[in-house]
Amino acid sequence: MKRIELHVLFMFSRTITMIIQRHSMFSMIPCRLVIISAFLLTREAADALQVIGGSVTVEQGGTAILPCYVIDTTDDLTQITWQRRTREKPHNDNLLTVLPREGAQFVNGGDDRFKYIGNFNNKNGTLQFSNVALKDEGSYTCIFTLFPSGNQKTEIPLNLLVPPFTNIKDNLPTLGTEEVLFATCTAAGSKPPAEVRWLTGALRDKVRTSTNSTQYDNGTTTTVSSLFGVPTREINGHQVQCVISGDSLSTEKSLPFTIQVYFPPTEVNIRAISEDSFECVTEANPNAKFIWSRSGQPLPQPGVKVEGAKLQLLSLTSDLNGLYQCEASNAYGREHGQLYVHVAAGACSAAWALFGLLLTLNVIGVAAWCFFKCGCFQRVGDQMQ
């Protein structure tokens, strides 16, 4: 284009010179001055036009519009060229050209993610770029070939936002008196880096946090925040939140987490629910599982009924006698409790007989007390005298 531009300037200056030579009134004007004036006029015209672009930011997997058009010029447009320099292709690479008749054509292999959505006649070279990946981040150059101005271009930076993958991992702490790691909250592979923080509420003075970040060659960053504290029963079951925020997220993400302090079953107690029902009670995290057995003998079926921690004696007979054991266990340990059952023969009949006798004596006693209070015994004695 430089050769064409110089040729045009030469022809223009030659024409001016011939005009000057034909008219005596211009004979005193140096030809060199005319040539310089013509060059300045061309330069001013080139300086007036503008190639409009701009920086573009898009989320990974989204669609980007790469704007590029020329304003303030009447020059003829002969071609539009797009070049790119990206993470995948760090050297300047020709992408496509747009010609007035042929339209958009890829130069070094096709890429269906690009679509020319501009208008050649309006000097608009805008591209649509779909399913953008991290490897596509870089600089895209739009070049307009104009006559007589020559090539005019602008660079369009393409920046990617990569939302993080988030999760909370329980470190499974067990009961103790020393500080341990409760859990880690991770925001992985984000661009730009995400902020990770904990909301601990009432546990503010009982826990502490530590945050570290690792940056990778592809421009992403993984941020990990750890929650520490002393694993006591008092802190077990409290809920906290991990909050993740950053430019790659439209809104904050809040991940709830319940602090779990794990421990084996504590002392096992057996409490009576009723005359013939008993329950095995203990503390454990995770919750204990219960197994009932009878020492030295199998459980007398169908004389008893077992449902989890509960044992029910279905009939109070002597064949149920024996030492029963309740075993409570979880992944961290096990503990036992014992119950001795002794049912004497005829115990129920004797009990009912004793109950009837006591009831009769109570009735007689109440009747005698009533007679005494109302003076019935005294009147009867007077009559007998």
TrEMBL record:
Membrane topology: Single-pass membrane protein
Domain Ig-like as annotated: residue spans: 30-159, 163-254, 256-344
Main location: membrane
Keywords: Cell adhesion, Disulfide bond, Glycoprotein, Membrane, Repeat, Signal, Transmembrane, Transmembrane helix
Bilayer-crossing regions: 350-372
Classification via Pfam families: C2-set_2, Ig_3, V-set
Family: Belongs to the nectin family.
Compartment annotation: Membrane
The organism of origin for this protein: Oreochromis aureus (Israeli tilapia)
Annotated SMART domains: IG, IGc2, IGv
Protein name: Ig-like domain-containing protein
GO cellular component: adherens junction; membrane
Keyword Membrane attributed: yes
GO biological process: heterophilic cell-cell adhesion via plasma membrane cell adhesion molecules; homophilic cell adhesion via plasma membrane adhesion molecules
